[in-house]
Each structure stands twice: as C-alpha cells, then as structure tokens.
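sorry to bug you again but im stuck and you know this stuff better than me. theres a chain ive been looking at and ive put its sequence and its fold in token form underneath. id like you to explain what the token line says about the fold, in plain words if possible. anything you notice is useful, everything is just below.
___
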Amino acid sequence: MEMVRQKPIRKSFRISIPSDPRNIHLAEEFLARVNRAAHFDEIEYHKILVALTEAVNNAILHGNQSDASKNVHVMLELSPRRCIVRVRDNGKGFDISAVPSPIHDERLFKETGRGIFLMRVLADDVSFSHIKSGFEVRLAFRRRRKFRAQWSK
C-alpha cells in the first residue's frame, strides 16, 4: 500500500471595511463568522480579536486617515497549526523603530499609542511591510490545539 501525503487543510476569509472608525465592529463580526469554521478556543479568539481590531483601527485612522472612500482589507488564513491575519491599507506606512514604547513613564497614562505594543504581545509574530498599494500588517498566531476541519458552508 502506498502512503499518500495530503496537504494541510487551509481556508481563507476576506473582508473589506470602509475607513470610518465607526466600522470597527465589522472586523469583530468578521472574526465571529470565521470562528464558526475555526473553532478557536476562548484564549485564541480573544488574542486574535484584540490584535485584529488594533490593526484595523490603526489602518483606518493612520493608514487611510479615516477616508471612508478607502477600504481596509483583512485577509485571514487558517491551517491546522496557524492563523495568519493580514490587514492592508492605502497609507504610506511608517517607521516601526520610531514608534515609542507605551510602557515608559512619560507615556504610561496616555490614552493612545498601545496598538502595536498589544499586537506584539498577543501575536506569535508581527511584521509590517510596504506593499504596492499601501501598507500591510501581518499577524501570525500558532493554534493552541489541532484545527478541526468542520467547515461551515
């Protein structure tokens, strides 16, 4: 008998969100729909939710300057071992090394400036890239348990 190696099951999900801060709930609803297929455990779900909403919020406010004629594009790819989230905007990007740490004394009580810090704490890997049409944040999460291939149709 010949052993056939199968490729891991992968599933992709996408959404485009108009760049209005009031639309952040669309990212939350998107992840809730994805979760019906992904079966994240509670810890996984909340880590991804917070990192995703921070990335989308930054893309709306900073990347697209809250211009509702521009969209933020979210792509999520699931595999048995990983969840990769990409958030793209039409902005020119930024120098990550110029972003101050929110945990220094002078910034500790500011109401803003924690998004990138939270993404880095919650995701297993975070990268920032200039792309042809703007800027992309990539968040990678290792799955905490074996992925269940129970796809919703």
Notes: The chain has a mean pLDDT of 84.
